[in-house]
Amino acid sequence: MITLIIIALTSIVSVQAFQKFSLVDKYIFYPPAIRRGEWWRFASYGVLHADWNHLLFNMFSLYLFGKAMEELFTEVFGPAMGGFLYVLLYVSGLVVSIAPTWAKHRNDSGYRSLGASGAVSAVVFAYIVVYPMSYMGLLFIPVFLPAFIFGGIYVAVSVYLDKKQVGNINHSAHVAGGVWGIFYLVATFGLLGGINLFTRFAASISLVSWSNLIKLGY
After folding, report:
1. What is the pLDDT, as a whole number, of residue 213?
2. What is the CATH number of the domain that holds 59?
3. pLDDT score at 159
4. In whole angstroms, what is the distance from residue 185 CA to residue 89 CA?
């Protein structure tokens, strides 16, 4: 239910903002406004999206991977604590993923950013840590790879595109969000749950796992 609530809230605000620029102006990540003390913009930008495609892609991705992560958190830590830790993953993903952008553009009065991509990346890469041998791919492209390989390629491509400044996309937020998702999950499960996700991750991508996949015909 938490994932659906996040999707509903984000979708409602985003759709309204498509026609009400005052909402965009109030919540978008805008360095001059943050310097004036409007710190909520470090998170509120995540409920805004540029258009329907941007919104649908992010919310569909969150639906696919967020449900699994929400269930895992509640299973390990219980409904109350697990739900809180899952929400914290998402919200902190918004803040941390935009931090490199703030460091780079804090004095840029012409810069703006919006979208939940950074937080969604945090959720997706947290999923990859737990399920590295599940298969992932891009919409409309019939090529699927083990999640940990797909994630590595995704980060490499995002870093390259960020350096080249390709497109009107905040690629650094994708990378920072993904790295934060990994760190947050490993730290949370290790410190609060006594679960070593590094060991589980290594076991999952071991040669035994690969040989089992080959035997199954994948």
Report:
1. 53
2. 1.20.1540.10
3. 84
4. 8
Number of folded domains in the chain? 1
- Tell me what pLDDT residue 212 has: 54
**Bridge partners, residue 145, by sequence:** 136
Question: Are 124 and 147 in contact, with CB atoms under 8 Å apart?
Answer: no
d(CA 199, CA 76): 17
Q: Which two tokens stand for residue 217?
A: 């015909």
Shortest CA distance to 120 belongs to which of 33, 191, 49, 26?
49
Which residues constitute the domain of residue 58? 2-216
Q: Where are the beta strands (DSSP E) in 46-178?
A: 135-136, 145-146
b/e per residue 9-21 (b: at least 16 CB within 10 A):
ebbebbeebeeee
Position 218 scores a pLDDT of 45
Say which DSSP state 100 is in: H
Q: What is the dihedral of CA 115, 177, 36, 10, to 10 degrees?
A: 30
Bridge partner list, 136: 145
Q: What residue ranges of the chain have pLDDT lower than 50?
A: 216-218
Tokens matching residue 131? 């399920």
- Tens of pLDDT, residue by residue over 154-197, are 888 888 887 776 667 787 899 999 999 999 999 999 999 999 99
Give the side-chain half-sphere CA count within 13 A for 129. 26
The pTM for the full model equals: 0.89
